[in-house]
Design a protein that fits this description.
tRNA processing, single chain, five-stranded mixed β-sheet, 6 helices, Methylamine Dehydrogenase, Chain H, about 800 residues, mainly beta
C-alpha cells in the first residue's frame, strides 16, 4: 500500500452536537468562545453568530462532567494563550492550551479515585502559575498548582462520607497566590476556606439554604466588596455581601436602611495584620418553582451592571434575568424566558456571553437556547436566536435525501430522528437542524429513504415494527423558505398532504393533522381543561401549530411542530429492528432484526405499493447488521454477525429474489463480524469491512460454484482498528481510481483510492479535532455534487458531521 501524492483539502462544514446532560458542562463567559462537553470531548464554537461548533477536542476515556475556562484577570495582548479545563468520569482532569480554534492538551491532573464532578481554575497573568480546585465523588477536594506542564497537588480536603457539589476559587487582590475557596457540600452549606501554597484552613460557613446548593458565583465589585450568589434545589437564590477591611465600608451607611445581622471573620496574612471581613445576607430571590441549577453574574466588563444583574436557570423550564432596582432597593425579575411545551425537563445551566449581549442556557436533553439582550429605555427585551445543538446520545445511522442530497436525516438512541439542511440567507450558508420528523419512545437504530422521487423514509427502532413517514405540507413550505430549494413538485405530487403531525397522549405514532383539524384541536384543548381527571387531561398532547419559518426553528418548535405523519407500520419481525434498506426506485424495502438463530435472521422484503412482505430470505445464522442495494437495484448485499456476506439477485418487476452468491461463516477472509458493506457507483464491485480490521473488495458478477467466493485481488487492506463503516464515492477520481472512505472503531476516517492494477493507496485521514473520537457508525457521500465531495457521518460520540473534501 502506497501513499498517493494527490492534493487533498478537507474541512468540516457542520458538526451537530448536544451539550452533556449535567450541570457545569458549558462555559462561555470566562473565555473567548463558547465551549461545552460532548460525550468524551469538548466542543469549541465559532466566535460569531450562530456560534456553530468548529472542532471537538478529546482527551478522556469517559463522559465529561465539567468544562470551564481558566479565568485570567490580566491579559497583556490578544497573542496570549487561553486555557480551559475538562473533568471526566474517568477520574482525570485535562488542561488545554491554545487560542482561536487551535488547542492542545497541556497537562493532565491525575489523583482522584472517582468521577470528577466539578472544577475551576485561575491564572493571574499569562506567565504565572495556574491554580485549580477540583471536587470528586471520592469525597475529596484537591487544590493543584500547575507550573509549566508540571501539576502538583498542594492540598486535599477529605469530607469522609460527604462530598462537594460545586465550588468556586477566587484570588485575594493585592495578595498573590492567596485565595478564598467556596465549597457547597451535601450539608446544604457553603464552606469558605483560605488557601495558599502552604496552608488551607476553613474560616467561615454560609448557611441558610434548605437543600443542595447547585451553583456558586462570585462578583468582585471592588477589591473590598464582593457579592457571593448561591442557588439551590430549595428554589431560592441567596446573595451575600463580603466587605473587606471594615474601615473602608463604614462610611456613607444609610441608617434608615434595614440591615440583617452581620457576621465577620478574619483572614490571616503572613507578616501582615489580619484582614477583617464582614458578611451579611444581602438579598434572597424567589421566582422559580423548581430547583435552580444555574447562576451567573453579568460580566464585570460593565461595573454598573456587574453586581446589579444576575441570571438564573431552573428545572421549571425558565431562565430569569434579575436586576437591582434602586428605587425599591431589591432585585426584581426584569425578564423571563424558557421552553414552552414538549416533554422536556428544565435547564441545567446558564451563562452570559463574554460581552454580555447574549444569554445561553442548556437543557436536560442537551439542547442549547440562545437569546440576544436588547435594552430599550428601561425595558429589557430578550430576542430568541438560532443556535445548533444535536443528538444527546449515540447516533446510529444517517442517510441523504435520495432526490439530490437536499438534506440529511440521522437517528439516535436518544429516540429521535433529526433533519439537517442548509440555511441560505444574504450570501451566507450554514447547516442547521430544521426538523425532527420522529420523536419516539424507543431507541432508534436505522433508517432509509424510499426512492428518489419522493421524500418518504422508513425507520427502525428497538421494537418489532418498521414505521414509514411522509413530509407534511408545513414542513415542505418552511424547508423551501429556509433552504431556497424549490419543492413545488413535491407539494403538487401529494395535494392531500397533511399540514403537520403530533403524537397522541401516551402514544408512539405520529398522527397526521389536516387544515380542518386546527379548530378541532383548539376545541379539544378546552374540553381537556374542563376535565383534568381524564387520561387526556392528565397527559396532554403537544398540539401541532402551523408556523411560518424563514430561519431554522428553535427547540420548542422542533419538539412539537416539525413531526412527520406516520403513514404505515410494517409488522413481521420477532425481535428488535437492526437494519433497513431500500432499492433506488423505492419499490422494495429490506429489513432485519436481532437474531440468534437462522429463522430470526431472515431478511424480509416488502412491497411498498401494498406494504406487504414479498419473501423471507433465510441465509444467515445470526443478526444481519447491514444491507445495501446496488445502484441499479438488481442486487441486495447483506453482512452478518456470523462472519458471512450474501448477495441476492432482485427481480424488481416480479418482486422476486434469489441467492446469487455468498461466503460461508468459516471463510478465510473475514474472521470476525462483518460490520459494513457498500457498492461502487458503477456496481462492478462491492466492499466489506469487519472487526478483524480487514477490508476486502469483491467483484459483483464473478461467481464460483460453491460458497468459497474470492476477493478480486489478494492485496487486501489491513487497518489498525475494527472497520465499522465503509462507502464508495459516487464517481471515479481523475486517474480512473475508485475513491473509498472507511470509518474505524476509534473514530478515525481514512481516505483511500483503489483499482485492480494499483491496489490501495492512502490519501489522508480525518481525525480529531475535526473528526470523530468514538466509533463511526455510518458514512455516506452527498449525491449529485459535480466538483467536490461532501461526506456525512455519524458516531457513538453523539455527533453528526459533514466534511468538505476537495481533490486535485
Amino acid at each position: 500500500m502506497a501513499n498517493v501524492s494527490t492534493d487533498i483539502k478537507i474541512d468540516v462544514d457542520y458538526i451537530s452536537a448536544a451539550c452533556n446532560c449535567c450541570p457545569h458542562s458549558l462555559d462561555w463567559q470566562n473565555g473567548p468562545r463558547l465551549i461545552y462537553g460532548v460525550t468524551n470531548s469538548v466542543a469549541l464554537c465559532s466566535d460569531t453568530a450562530p456560534f456553530s461548533v468548529r472542532k471537538t477536542f478529546s482527551g478522556h476515556q469517559g463522559r465529561l462532567n465539567c468544562v470551564k475556562w481558566v479565568r485570567q484577570e490580566q491579559r497583556n495582548s490578544n497573542s496570549d494563550f487561553y486555557y480551559f479545563l475538562s473533568a471526566s468520569v474517568d477520574k482525570t482532569i485535562s488542561l488545554w492550551k491554545g487560542k482561536d480554534e487551535d488547542y492542545t492538551k497541556y497537562t493532565s491532573l491525575v489523583g482522584h479515585q472517582n468521577s470528577v464532578t466539578t472544577v475551576v481554575g485561575y491564572q493571574q497573568s499569562p506567565n504565572d502559575d495556574i491554580y485549580v480546585a477540583s471536587g470528586s465523588a471520592d469525597s475529596t477536594i484537591k487544590i493543584w498548582c500547575i507550573t509549566d506542564t508540571l501539576a502538583t497537588c498542594l492540598h486535599t480536603l477529605d469530607f469522609k462520607n460527604g462530598f462537594a457539589i460545586t465550588l468556586e476559587l477566587v484570588p485575594l487582590d493585592n495578595h498573590k497566590n492567596i485565595f478564598l475557596l467556596f465549597v457547597a457540600t451535601d450539608k446544604n452549606k457553603v464552606q469558605i476556606y483560605q488557601v495558599s501554597n502552604s496552608v488551607i484552613e476553613q474560616i467561615f460557613v454560609l448557611s441558610g439554604h434548605e437543600d443542595w446548593i447547585r451553583s456558586i458565583t462570585v462578583q468582585k465589585l471592588t477589591s473590598f466588596q464582593w457579592f457571593v450568589a448561591t442557588c439551590s434545589q430549595d428554589n431560592y437564590i441567596r446573595i451575600w455581601q463580603l466587605s473587606f477591611n471594615e474601615s473602608n465600608n463604614q462610611t456613607n451607611v444609610d441608617p434608615t436602611i434595614l440591615k440583617l445581622k452581620r457576621s465577620s471573620f478574619a483572614l490571616k496574612i503572613t507578616d501582615e495584620s489580619p484582614i477583617n471581613v464582614n458578611v451579611e445576607l444581602y438579598s434572597i430571590l424567589l421566582g422559580h418553582e423548581e430547583a435552580i441549577y444555574g447562576l451567573c453574574w453579568y460580566p464585570n466588563t460593565d461595573l454598573k451592571k456587574a453586581a446589579t444583574t444576575i441570571l438564573s436557570a431552573s428545572m421549571d423550564k425558565s431562565m430569569v434575568l434579575w436586576t437591582f432596582d434602586d428605587n425599591q432597593k431589591m432585585y426584581i425579575d426584569k425578564a423571563r424566558v424558557g421552553e414552552v411545551g414538549g416533554n422536556t425537563l428544565g435547564f441545567y445551566g446558564c451563562t452570559f456571553s463574554p460581552c454580555g449581549s447574549y444569554i445561553l442556557g442548556h437543557g436536560y436533553e442537551g439542547a442549547l437556547h440562545l437569546w440576544k439582550i436588547e435594552e430599550i429605555d428601561d425595558r429589557i427585551n430578550l430576542i430568541p436566536q438560532v443556535i445548533n445543538s444535536g443528538h444527546f446520545n449515540t447516533v446510529e445511522d444517517c442517510c441523504w435525501d435520495r432526490h439530490s442530497g437536499r438534506y440529511l436525516l440521522s437517528v439516535s438512541t436518544d429516540q429521535t430522528a433529526r433533519l439537517h439542511a442548509e440555511w441560505k440567507r444574504n450570501g451566507i450558508i450554514s447547516w442547521h437542524e430544521i426538523g425532527r420528523p420522529q420523536i419516539h419512545g424507543y431507541e432508534m437504530k436505522c433508517l432509509t429513504f424510499i426512492g428518489s422521487n419522493q421524500q418518504r423514509f422508513v425507520s427502525g427502532a428497538d421494537e418489532k415494527i418498521l414505521r414509514v413517514f411522509d413530509p407534511p405540507k408545513n414542513f415542505l413550505e418552511n424547508f423551501a423558505r429556509i433552504t431556497k430549494i424549490n419543492v413545488d413538485e413535491d407539494i403538487q405530487k401529494a395535494q392531500s398532504l397533511p399540514e403537520g403531525a403530533n403524537v397522541p397522549a401516551l402514544g408512539l405514532s405520529n398522527k397526521a393533522i389536516f387544515d380542518n383539524d386546527e379548530n378541532q384541536t383548539t376545541t379539544t384543548s378546552a374540553v381537556i381543561d374542563d376535565d383534568p381527571m381524564t387520561v387526556d387531561g392528565l397527559y396532554k398532547e403537544g398540539f401541532f401549530k402551523a408556523i411560518v419559518l424563514n430561519e431554522p426553528p428553535f427547540e420548542e418548535h422542533l419538539l412539537q411542530n416539525t413531526l412527520w405523519p406516520e403513514i404505515q407500520k410494517l409488522y413481521g419481525h420477532g425481535y428488535e429492528i437492526i437494519a433497513v434498506a431500500s432499492n433506488p426506485s423505492g419499490s422494495i424495502i429490506a429489513s432485519t432484526c436481532k437474531a440468534s438463530q437462522p429463522t430470526d435472521a431472515a431478511i424480509i422484503l416488502w412491497n411498498t405499493n401494498t406494504w406487504k412482505p414479498i419473501t423471507r430470505l433465510v441465509v444467515h445464522q445470526l443478526t444481519v447488521v447491514r444491507m445495501a442495494f446496488s445502484n441499479d437495484g438488481q442486487y441486495l448485499l447483506s453482512v452478518s454477525r456470523d462472519r458471512s456476506w450474501s448477495l441476492f439477485e432482485i427481480d424488481e418487476t416480479n418482486f422476486q429474489a434469489r441467492l446469487y452468491k455468498r461466503i460461508s461463516s468459516n471463510n478465510q477472509y473475514h474472521k470476525r463480524i462483518i460490520w459494513t458493506c457498500s457498492f461502487s457507483h458503477d456496481d462492478k464491485y462491492f466492499i466489506t469491512g469487519a472487526r478483524d480490521q480487514m477490508i476486502h473488495m469483491w467483484r459483483v458478477t464473478e461467481k464460483s460454484n460453491d460458497d468459497n467466493e474470492h476477493p478480486c485481488e489478494k492485496n487486501y487492506l489491513k487497518l489498525n482498528d475494527s472497520i465499522t463503516a465503509v462507502t464508495f464515492a459516487p464517481r471515479l477520481i481523475e486517474t480512473e481510481r475508485y475513491f473509498v472512505v472507511a470509518g474505524l472503531d476509534n473514530g478515525s476516517v481514512l481516505l483511500y483510492t483503489w483499482n485492480e492494477q494499483v491496489s490501495w493507496q492512502h490519501l489522508t485521514s480525518i481525525t480529531a479535532p475535526l473528526g470523530f473520537h468514538l466509533t463511526v457508525n455510518q458514512l455516506c457521500f452527498r449525491p449529485l455534487l459535480s466538483s467536490s465531495y461532501q461526506l456525512a457521518g455519524c458516531s457513538n460520540d453523539g455527533t453528526v458531521r459533514i466534511f468538505n473534501i476537495s481533490l486535485s
